[in-house]
Amino acid sequence: LVSRDFHPANTIVDVRGVRVGQGCRPVVVAGPCAVESEEQIVKTALFVKQAGADMLRGGAFKPRTGPHTFQGLREEGLKLLAVAGRESGLPIVTEVMSPDSVGLVSEYADLLQVGARNMQNFDLLRELGRIRKPVLLKRGMSATVEEFLAAAEYILAEGNDQVILCERGIRTYETATRNTLDLAIVPLIKEMSHLPIMVDPSHATGKRSLVPPMALAALMGGAQGVLVEVHPEPEKALSDGPQSLTFPGFGNLMEEVRRLTGFL
Ligand code: PEP
Ligand code: MN
């Protein structure tokens, strides 16, 4: 079902009126790693909106590597996202970690994110296949392209074809960056599948200074959007501060995006 051989026409995913896919303008999803407070998420939403972002991201349920770190505000975080969504008018992108919470998260999210650590949580994928909301499926950190597409197949097989793929870097021997951004899969996925593909340069690099150049490279390489972490005070962020862009940093990136995508 994900293969272009059986479905030649490009799938366009509609996220509350924002269209993602080939032939559409590339989209920018921006926001903090995690929702931390009403002030933090509303301030970020209003800033990224005026800078030109198309959607707001923010984690309420956080899949942290260790159990003793900030795990997210959970349902309270979803409610704060709803406030920020209303105030900014931006569609909401947030992660869902378990099949049990798909119902709850889909009441608040316009685009439900499956994190890298859950790419092969097949019960979660099946549950997401049964809802009528779009899904952002991130590539597992050690997943091959074949495994990535097979994971998307689980969602489509249950009847939901509104799936956006997202490359977020993979594990390699290299430790100088958090992960290794595998940009070549952007054109490769476009050859193999009709589903849109986006890139997350924040988790791919783990380093603020590398995010803008890799976001631009992704868009120039044909990605249908980028997912970028932005925080009002990255040094105080409860997660992923070192890779989060500041407001001025995000503003500069958006100027570059507008300049470069004007030529596409
Ligand atoms: C995230 O987007 O906040 C996240 C946890 O990303 P990933 O699943 O790609 O690590
Ligand atoms: Mn993060």
Looking at this protein, list some descriptive labels:
alpha/beta, binds phosphoenolpyruvate, 264 residues, globular, TIM Barrel, eight-stranded parallel β-sheet
Structural class by helix and strand composition: alpha/beta
| Low-pLDDT windows of residues | none
Count of helix runs: 9
| CATH fold group | TIM Barrel
Helix proportion:
25-40%
Write down how many β-strands occur, each being a DSSP E stretch of 2 or more residues.
10
Q: What do we call the CATH homologous superfamily?
A: Aldolase class I
Count of the separate structural domains: 1
What is the average of the pLDDT values? 97
- In the CATH hierarchy, the architecture is Alpha-Beta Barrel
Percent of residues in β-strands: 5-15%
Oligomer kind: single chain
What's the SSE pattern? EEEHEHEHEHEHEHEHHEH
Top CATH class: Alpha Beta
Strand order in the largest sheet: 9-8-7-6-5-4-3-10
Distance between the termini: 29 Å
Radius of gyration: 17 Å
Shape: globular
Bound ligands, each once: phosphoenolpyruvate, manganese (II) ion
Instruction: Specify the biggest β-sheet.
Output: 8 strands, parallel
